[in-house]
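re: ur question from earlier - yeah i can do the single chain one, its not a big deal. heres the input i used so u can compare w yours
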Amino acid sequence: MKVEAVLHGERKVYSVSAFNRGVARYLGRLPAVWVEGEVTELRHNPAWATVFVTLKDPATGATLKTTIARRTFDRLGLGLEEGETVHVAGRAELYEARGELGLRATTIERIGLGEHLLALERLRGRLAAEGLFAPAHKRPLPRIPRAVGVLTGADAAARGDLVATIANRFPATKVVVCEVRVQGRGAPQAIVAGLGCLGEHPEVDVVVLARGGGSFEDLLPFSDEAVVRAVAASPVPVVSAVGHEQDAPLCDLAADVRAPTPTAAGALVVPDRIELASTLEACRRRLELGVRALVAQDAARLGRLGERLRAAPRLLLERRRSGLDHAGARLQALSPLATLGRGYAIVRAHGEVVRDAAVLSPGDRLEVELASGGAGARVEDVRP
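and the output i got, formated as tokens:
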């Protein structure tokens, strides 16, 4: 489409669209160039056709919006991280709808880590060697905290989402908000002081570091050594909800739990009252069923014991009767009368039972006891 002006007398006037289109065409005639800069604000989504990245000049802070086709970016397989220094080849372009100048990249080459990233890597390694990030130091979050400390900046969206999530999930939990500077000069000292205040609060059982998304530089205070050490030394568990999911400040490694967003942090620090009520109801039902089962078991056991108790006297009497009958039978078998009944007799002389014929003399009177009755007799002769 031709870029045409509208005549106002002798003056040629271009519309904004025509002006932007003309500049875009002019830029399109410029040759391809190589640009060096640090990677910031890298945005990559498999569902998008384009990858967006901002290149920054570390010396002046100047930035350049850059785009590259997602397929080309994926094919390069660079695995870029924010803070790395790269060389980008491409052509200047103008986004006509907004009049924004940018660079349409055709390829990207890594030439090394930026100064900030190198410093962070060295700090990460040193703190890890001290054991500051060790899993053994991670503390569990309280099930139902009395109060949640929220350390945040002037980011109303992050604070509002977090506070609203806590209020909706468990209204009984208090929220103690500590608003501090979270970027720029003095931010690390302010964050450390805020953590100290929340940690000393008598009701705060867990602290959430909350900050919305930002550039690599914006999030640098949360990788400051003093901040990282303060997070690790906090007297109560700390949840880090800094930046977006792809961001990775060092405070994430020192925190007890890392949340991808402030909203997700709210879901981590307090239970859902509806789910909790449902769980309590399920526990109540299980407890009721358990008590009923125990009562039924005890009732059955008492019933069996009652039957045994009622039957015990009869069984005891039968056992005792059987024992008496057995003892009587044994006594009967051992009784002298039983012996007499088999044809034997008991002979007495001089009032004593005669066991030896030598004690007898002819003419002695004998008393003979039989099984039935008895008789008197005299000794006629004694045989040895």
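The mean pLDDT is 86. not sure if urs matches, ping me
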